[in-house]
Design brief:
Elements (H helix, E strand, L loop, with lengths): L2 H28 L4 H8 L2 H4 L4 H15 L9 E4 L2 E4 L3 H37 L4 H29 L1 H12 L14 H4 L2 H43 L1
Antiparallel strand pairs: 1-2
Helix pairs in contact: 1-5, 1-6, 1-9, 6-9
């Protein structure tokens, strides 16, 4: 296999892994029915913030709609401790605007990766590469490399989640709005650190399953290629 084919195939594989990783985040956060209610029940969040579960889930629904760009602001009226009030204060709203920017950037990155996948595949076709052979082989290698790197990173983070959780915020946020006060900011109570740990684990599992599916499919393609080559050889 030509080196250029390998390079294009590996680039395609890494782009695909990023697509699957971002999709895994989206799947856990947006597409898992009952996930937030299960977590809230597990950590007794409704009791912690003195809210009815139904009201808490309504606030969460509006928050997720905001992050997806389906709601313009986070002025969400609700009932807390029997009193009508806005759930989010000014500091929380400002922080969630930063979080929304991250979600938007992730979606944009996924689109770029999809474009890279299309471009690398087109270049392989123009180079007259054997797509049915080049892509499965390159995807197997690229998938293994990417999964290995993310596995190492996950192992490092698991040794001290709190420390790396803080480092993550320092990297992606240019202010201290993410440092919330449990006494005044309800947001920190509805998404406590154990919630983030559970979510990270679930994202990791989802990503692992998607990667395993891609890897298995590539191995299957290579197996049939090998059998076809062997069969053609015996017929000559």
């Amino acid at each position: 296999m030509k080196m250029i084919h390998w390079m294009l195939g590996i680039l395609c594989a890494f782009a695909l892994m990023l697509v699957l990783l971002i999709t895994s985040v989206e799947a856990v956060v947006y597409w898992t029915p009952g996930y937030f209610e299960k977590e809230y029940t597990k950590y007794q969040v409704a009791e912690e913030v003195s809210m009815e579960m139904a009201d808490l889930l309504d606030v969460t629904h509006e928050m997720m709609a905001f992050l997806r760009g389906r709601r313009e602001d986070l002025h969400v009226p609700t009932v807390v401790a029997g009193q009508s009030r806005e759930f989010f204060n000014a500091r929380e709203i400002a922080h969630m605007e930063d979080v929304r920017d991250l979600f938007v950037a992730a979606i944009m990155l996924r689109r770029i990766c999809l474009a890279v996948i299309g471009l690398t595949t087109a270049l392989l076709v123009l180079q007259k590469a054997r797509i049915s052979r080049v892509l499965p082989q390159a995807l197997c290698v690229g998938t293994a490399l990417f999964f290995g790197l993310t596995g190492i990173l996950a192992g490092i983070i698991a040794t001290d989640f709190s420390r790396y959780f803080i480092i993550f915020h320092h990297i992606f946020f240019r202010n201290d709005l993410w440092i919330l006060d449990p006494g005044t900011d309800l947001l920190i109570n509805i998404v406590p650190e154990p919630f983030f740990m559970d979510t990270a684990a679930r994202i990791g599992l989802t990503f692992g399953l998607l990667v395993a599916a891609v890897f298995g499919l590539c191995l299957l393609c290579l197996h049939f290629q090998k059998r076809q080559t062997k069969y053609n050889g015996t017929q000559m």
